[in-house]
Amino acid sequence: MWAVTRFTGSQSNRILLVELGSDAASLNQAVQANGNTDREGIAHNIQMVKRNTYMDFVFVLLYWMTFVGLAYLAGMLGQRLLAFCSSASMTAAALADLLENHSILTAMSFRNFTDAVAVDISEYSQAKWAFFYLGIFLLGLAMALNRRTSQLRRITGSVFLAAGAFGIVGISRCRISFDFAAAMLNVGMFLTSAALLMTLWKIYHSLKELSHIDNAHHAHLHA
Predict the structure, then answer these.
(1) N or C, which end of the chain has less CB nearby within 10 Å?
(2) What residue numbers bound the domain in which 90 lies?
């Protein structure tokens, strides 16, 4: 999403600042361009925030389906309670994300930001990130504790565990230090991406092994 949202100015972590900033000043900082007098740049940045938010509706569906699917698979292999709790947390995160997006679009439609709309966004955002990383942590726990799966799956579960831990620590400190929270959330997202890549690698090799077994079976039948 960030690849198609080109902001004007040098402010970093704009979307997180919109999400976790709890006052009008944070929203103004998030859309700031080349100074407060650059009205055209500010208007452009507001449009970029809106574009990012509209695209996020699709992303919500994608990550919900991905992690609920992984939790279902983890439940089929064992640790059903942890897998169910992970799915429930991801569902709560997705619902909070939708409410957060609605609040962001409402805020960006105002000529002047207010503390009230900023607080609404922040509350939904904190709930979203808390449930999201809790779901990641529980998914990792379900995978790491399952001794009936391969070592790679358990290692992937450990990476999910670490990602969830970083994210939970980050969101729990967002009121104390935004920079620290943003760094922890970004580390958590990086580890989550790494774990997803490891999952894809395992799925690829599993499908390759199944294809090899199937070919061997057909060769045996025609022998």
Answers:
(1) C
(2) 2-221
